[in-house]
Amino acid sequence: MIRLAVVAVLAAGAAALNIRPTQQTGVKRIDLLRHDLSTAGREVIQARVEVAPGFTAPKHKHPGEEMVYLIEGTLEYQLEGQPPVTLHPGQVLFIPAGTPHSAKNVGRSVGAELATYTVEKGKPLLVLVK
């Protein structure tokens, strides 16, 4: 009975935070926070993004800035026009608004980042770039 109650509370909490994986195999985004900013038309979104070993997220961009904090694993980021950057746990990366980029898990275990986006409200968070 207690286990059932705990599961119900966890499920309700996940629903309230809008936790959902992306549809793409190899990467999963778990939304943690979405909140309006004091600047009109802007919001902050914070998510845990998990990348499977050997997987490369396709090139994409965001309608605002992205701040990355690597939680675990080893991820290599390729920002358009710049040399690749490899992050290890505890390291950070700033990705300017609209900058096409991709991320590849170059480690042997799941890589996880805490991604914080300050973006234009109402626009898609992620836009694929060819």
Automatic annotation (TrEMBL):
SUPFAM superfamilies referenced in this protein's UniProt entry, alphabetically: RmlC-like cupins
Segments traversing the membrane: none
Domain Cupin type-2: 48-109
Pfam families, per database record: Cupin_2 (PF07883)
Protein name per its UniProtKB record: Cupin domain-containing protein
Organism: Gemmatimonas groenlandica
